[in-house]
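Weekly puzzle thread! Below is a chain. First person to post its structure in token form gets bragging rights.
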Amino acid sequence: MLPWTTTYLTQALSVAKHRNAAAND
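Winning reply:
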């Protein structure tokens, strides 16, 4: 997997978790 792809997916997961946590808060 390309480094930029890994970074993009990691950031996407981080954002999703952050939004999920904010919504559940």
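Puzzle host: Confirmed. Bonus trivia for everyone else. The CA atoms of residues 6 and 18 lie 18 Å apart.
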